[in-house]
Prior knowledge:
Layout: H1 2-20, E1 43-49, E2 54-57, E3 63-67, E4 72-77, E5 82-85, E6 88-89, E7 95-96, E8 99-104, E9 110-114, E10 119-123, E11 133-134, E12 153-154, E13 160-164, E14 173-179, E15 187-193, E16 197-199, E17 208-212, E18 220-223, E19 229-234, E20 237-242, E21 249-250, H2 263-271, E22 282-285, E23 324-325, E24 331-334, E25 344-349, E26 355-361, E27 365-370, E28 374-380, E29 386-392
Parallel strand pairs: 2-27, 6-7
Antiparallel strand pairs: 1-29, 2-3, 3-4, 4-5, 8-9, 9-10, 10-11, 12-13, 13-14, 14-15, 16-17, 17-22, 18-19, 19-20, 20-21, 23-24, 24-25, 25-26, 27-28, 28-29
Amino acid sequence: MCHTGMLCATATLGLLLSGCRAAPIDPATDGERPPRRFPDSPAEFPALFTVIRAVMALPDGRLVVSDPAENRVSLIDFAKGDSRSLGRVGEGPLEFKRAAGLYRAPGGGVWVFDHELRRLLPVSPSGELQEVVQVPYGGLAGDVPPHGPDDLTFDSLGQTYWASRGGGFTTATNVLLRYHAGGGRPDSLTRLLRPVTKALNARRNGLGDYQTVLFSPEDAWAVAPDGWIAVARASPYRVDWIPAAGLAVNGPAITHKPVRITREEKELIASGAGGWRGRISVTLVMVSPAGPKPPGAGAPPPAYEVLYAKAKTPVNLRDDRWPLLDESGRLWVQRSLPFGKKESVFDVFDRAGNLVDRVELPAGSRLVGFDPQWIYTARADADDFEHLQRFPLAKP
């Protein structure tokens, strides 16, 4: 009887332990599983660029490349090593004043966004320039961000998208608007979380100094050619999709470990090195007894201690790096990593918001575009020129 009782107790304990085992991890939400890496060195295009803003493929495999630093648009054949310029700088019907991002045009062509003239210069599927297309909402042209994103975004249906920045400097969200090709009132699609901004010495009229809290959560978004919008939510971390018509698709929350901000990283940011996005306090208007005056006039602005979030937001938007869509419509979101890690890691999401892949790119490789078979990246050399690389897109 004693032996039988021991066996029963052991069996009961085994059942209890089996019930306490952790549930299997769902790969669709596991944001900590190891990413896949590329074992071989990538192929590189022989020509040099100053800043590769974007790369987009034509149906025959040739690539349109935008270089805003040189204000040049190129048509290249990567396999052959051939390259030629498209268009010239100007305000004529087949010209551009300031080349910026690239967007998919109908039939497999490419739209080049002319940031200064606020219009689109089409490149046909055969690689020829076509008549410019005016956009329904122009906005105000500012500086061209070297890596993106543009202030306006486009789908292949002729619709324009803009994240409204109204509501004051400390407003928690922006409103994503869609302007139709035929004009009329825009659609309000969703609210986008803005990084936290603190008022340091603002008065009731809004004048004063403000500072962005570094690494605070911020939503990012991208528009597919068919009008679907992907929104990478920072808190909780997930990807939502807004279809061209119908209800939004809310993706599941993605697991991730908080990435702490180290003392060494704060010292680098304070030194002004490293090109950190939003590293300095945002001084909007100085307040003095004589009234408001713009920054730079008279005495220098006061120094403030840089403000930091408790941990890094999972969506990495440093240096204006923004989520990109590949040719199959999947969203690539760059993750925040611990200080000192030189590689970059991307979470890849399908249109249900499921995490379908995780990819690590080598140190120094910045994601700039796709075609159906390849991932294109930019690598900066010791002289700060950029080389166009490509890696195989499919899993090995």
